[in-house]
Amino acid sequence: MNLHHLKYFLVIAEEGSLSAASKKLLVGQPALSAQLKQFESWLGIKLFERIGKKLVITQSGEYVLKYAKAIKNLEDELILNLGHADQLTKKEFVVGVLESVPKSILAHTIATINHVRPVRLKVLEGKADELFQLLVNGKIDFFIGNFRPRSEGKEMFYLSLGKESVSVYGSKQFSELKKGFPKSLEDKSFILPGFQNPVRHDFEKFMLQTGLSFNVGVEAQDTALQKELGIKGEGLIIVGDESAKSWVKSGQLHKIGSVPNLKEEYWLGMVKKAIDNDYIKSILAAF
Question: Which CATH number does the domain housing residue 223 bear?
C-alpha cells in the first residue's frame, strides 16, 4: 500500500465513479482501475460494488474510508507544519513586563531582541513583586520595567533602555489649561500610576514645590488604561512624550505642559549569572 492508493481510493469514493475520479485526478481510467484493484488485492476485501454506472462503497470500504481520511489529514498536517519547522529550533525566551511599561517601548525592545537572532518570545505582564520572584527563580529571562526592583540578596544586572521626558496630557476639554501652566493644574483631577512608580513620586514632589494641590481620581498601573481614561476625559495624565505621540497626532490627547526635569527611565533586568550566556551578551550589546 502507498499514499497513491489512499488518494485514489478517497477520490473514487467522493466522485462515485472511475470516470469522474479519472478527470479530477488527471489519471487515465485504465490506470486508475488498476490501482484500485491493487489496493483491494493488498487489503483482501472488496471496496466498491458496481450498481449500474455507479460505484457504491461497501461496508468494508466505509471502514477503510475512515482510516484513509485520517491518514490524509495527517499528511496535510505534516505538510503544513513543515512550513513552520524553523519554529521548533528557535530558543524560547520569557520576558516579564510591568503593566506600566508603554507598549511602544515593549515593541521596540522585542524588535531589538529579534534583530539579534529570531527567537520565540513569551511575554508575561504583571506586578513587580510577582515578576521579580519569577526572575530570581529562573522562570523568566528578562525583566522590563520603569524602575529597578530591590535585589534582596540576588546579584542583579540592569541595563537602561532609555529615558523620555514626561508631560501632562488631557483630552480636548482640558486644552485651555495650557494657558497659565502649571498653575492651571490647581485642584484638577489626575489619573496617576501607583506609588511604586518613581514618576508618581517626582510629579507629586513637583506639585508640592510649586505649591499646587490636586486630586487623584484614578490610580492605575497600566499605561494603556491611563491613556484610555485620559482620552475619555476622566482626568489629566502624566505620560512620556514619545509614548503619547500617536495619541497626540490623532487628536485624542493634547499636551498641556512639560514638567521640568521629569523623566521616565526604562530598564532591562536579569540575574547576573545569565550574562555568561553568549546569546545574552549579544542582546545586551545590541542595546
Answer: 3.40.190.290
